[in-house]
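S.,

As promised, the adenosine-5'-triphosphate run. Input:
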Amino acid sequence: MSTEELREEQQFVSGLYARLDALREEAETAVEASLSQVGNGLQARLERDVMVAEQSGLLAALNAQENGLCFGRLEFRDGRDHHIGRIGIRASDTERTPLVIDWRADVARPFYLATGHTPMGLRRRRHITTKGREVTDLHDEILDLGDTARTGFEGADADEVLLAALDSARTGRMHDIVQTIQAEQDRIIRAPHRGVLVVEGGPGTGKTVVALHRAAFLLYAHRELLAKRAVLVVGPNPAFLGYIGEVLPALGETGVLLSTVGELFPGVTATGTDTPAAAEVKGRAEMAEVLAGALRDRQATPEPGEPLVIAHDDGDLILDWTIAHEAREAARDADVPHNLGRPHFAFRIIDSLTGQLAERIGHDPYGGPNFLGPDDIAQLGKGIAASPEVHAAIEELWPTLTPQGFLDDFLVEPTRLDETDAAAIRRPRGAAWTPADVPLLDEAAELLGHDDSAALAAAEAERAKQIAYAQGVLDVSRASRTYEFEDKDEEDAEVLLAHNIIDAERMAERQEEADHRSAAERAAADRTWAFGHIIVDEAQELSAMAWRLLMRRCPTRSMTLVGDPAQTAEAGGCGSWESILSPYVQDRWEYTRLGVNYRTPVEIMEVAAEVPRAAGNPDFRPPSSVRSTGVFPWARRADDLAAAVAAAVAADAREEGRLAVIAPRELHAELAAELPGVTAGEAPDLTRPVVLIDPRQAKGLEFDTVLVVEPARYGTSDLYVALTRATQRLGVLYTEELPVALKRAEATP
Ligand SMILES: Nc1ncnc2c1ncn2[C@@H]1O[C@H](COP(=O)(O)OP(=O)(O)OP(=O)(O)O)[C@@H](O)[C@H]1O
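Predicted complex:
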């Protein structure tokens, strides 16, 4: 083994980090300079914000490179020689020579695709392993069989590097895989398809990690568009989002919002839970029609023969069925959302009532024309339009609604559903919102329409407040002028004031300028934001209503959907890709499949696959595992479950790695009492050594060791998910009964 090779590579990597440090410093200075820049006018402010956002993004990308900045090297037969890294970095010379090539660049592609059979012009491919800034190992593959030069770091093929990565202890956070992306994964990551791309595959095939790398690739390939519009990554629960949250920042990408569907209605935190029946009803596509109908029901008329009588200074006004009906039809004809239709409705009502009053007041008892002229009638109209009683009547018939208010009313007394469905979702007024309510709130917001007037008024009021505040600040600063300053005669003081002190309005503007939020942050606060690309993980779980919400957030339909129908657990889950997608893109979507399991060793997968087979799918074939460990899963009956779990956890204690106890929620308190230091709850800290979670929380996660507790209580897909979370060891503990699929594991000592 040539230490010279290592030394050379170390020299290169050290030089690279020196350049990184210099770039970092430049970016820091640029952020500071942009921040202190005071421009005049909207354009200057905008430019400054863009500069700050850009430089901050660059700085974050540079700061994320402390580990694994450079991980590969390609030597081509024609003499080209490129290092490959997480981001591209150029030298400071005038040509700005590339020092390390971004893994997403075309030049880097042979790193992932070249084989002895198709060497893509390569002579040698090198994997460089680093720890911090230190080069610890090299792995070379000779792709040109005629090449006799050797470095002493040659290995059979890149599988060695892959297996080392797969075998390493888990940390509770997903890591990027730029060094070991496999060819089938690379094709998906770089797929040129612009519309909906479906990535299907069994457990552990890398769907999630591939989708995240695709996001990074798209941000690289279409930076201009996507940095502005941001990318949304949707996952099943907050723990999962925490688990995957470090992958994109490690790849230098920060323009991404990670969210569950339940978090996508700004201002609403969904803390409630639904029964499976309620979630199923709320998720149905027909709920869109049901809500639209319920809203039409809120556009009322008085009963025929029972008019509203409105007291008015000039005499009672009669608002009867005919007037209200005509106004309602006119407002509906305007074909605008409910709240925007209200001015149409109000205008008609006021117009009719004005006519009624004019008719009464100006009536000529001798049959002549009405006494009132247009000016008098306009005056009467103004009086009616200003009448609180008239407004109360309009509000009763065509109320201004908020999505929250409207949905709350609906859930208290659900209409347009049969009694069983209504009973499933009925709930007391003001009860906590649930994740399944969020798509309904979004639907309601669409039906109600965005009434800008209130928001504009609020914005204006806020601005006035800021100006008042700024005025206050100025007053204070005037009051605290130095004695010397006070001593100047009045005229002099005025000159200085005008010269030195910024006016209140300008100061308020400066306060607004402090908004340097990234596109992703602004997107998070804006319900109507259109994302540049959306990635949906565990897509098989989303309901039809959740899809409606997501499609609204992505008018371009540039999406990557990741899922595995065999792992569907949610009652509201939407079924086949065809049924999910055809309402939005017909058949214009692309299907891809990943077939190799990188997580679960073959010993565990053979047991897990028995679960779907025993549940009526005898031909079920799981993805083939890339690893075999020789360690077989075990299953044991316990007398005292909590004690047995505690003993099994203690027996597995090791310095590195993570262990998960997956148990039905109702057993958590009892189990946690016996597991000192365990982390549990809604958002457990997955970086801790021992985690207690329920089967739903286990979705998408992985651990070195998994203990599955009381499996008879799980549904088929929950059990399949739970059994496929381990990278090394799987044990099952039970007191009730062992599902037949797990009988094989019982034989293991
Ligand atoms: N090319 C690769 N190199 C290194 N590790 C990989 C590679 N592909 C996948 N992995 C690892 O395999 C594990 C499983 O990947 P991932 O969680 O993306 O699978 P998944 O298909 O989403 O699984 P599930 O459906 O069970 O949640 C992860 O630890 C991931 O980092």
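The radius of gyration is 33 Å. Residues 4-156 form one domain.

- D.
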